[in-house]
Amino acid sequence: MSAASGGWPSAARLVGVGLGPGDPDYVTVRAVKVLRAADRLVHFAKKGERGNARTIADAITGPDPARELPLHYPVTTEIAVAHPDYAAAIGAFHDRAAARLIEVVEAGRSVGVLCEGDPFFYGSFIHLWLRLKDRVAIEIVPGVTSMAAASARSGLPLGWGDDVVSVLPATLRYADLVERLGAADAAAIIKLGRNLPKVRDALGAAGLFDRAVYVERAAMPGQRIGPLAAMIEDRAPYFSLILVPGRGRRG
Question: How confident is the model over 184-196, as pLDDT tens digits?
């Protein structure tokens, strides 16, 4: 019997479930309801791995192979994101994944797509949503973002008073980073990876380097927080970002 008849919390047949940054204590009550009731738990992962979102959900559901439907990326870091081959491979992957989910929904199953952080905050789920939003009823369960977790775990308010807070992908051109950082009172810089040296230079050019805080694996095992100036590496792992906390600008 479909979980929709046994406690499924939504009229939607497919739910993008935000699971927060890593600590299962940050998973919302509504997300827990979806995790427990869904017929299928879908999660993105590198081939041969379960994925961070599924690991978070383990604390609520435990391993449940009968309900799991992994979506394995064809590539992750093997090809540069800007390379045409990467876009082609990932686009085809999302097309296949969306078609598979339609099959599951049309078979009468309720589907929870597990998402790290928040589904609509730079999430891979957005690519599925774009392909499915006109074909199936979808609900979005928001989650705690890595940016919010990093601010909380570092003990630094990201924005207050009249601060203008910018969220900047490190993949932006250097000149764009400098311009946007120069106009912001506070910032969160994501997608660091091999762009870390460029971000360091941009923060220096914008006069913000001394305020910058590096956060790695916020709310996960192995959490690392400290001044960016103390980080000597030239490449950051996937679960990392830089915060420039606000100062409470007035007027």
Answer: 999 999 999 999 9
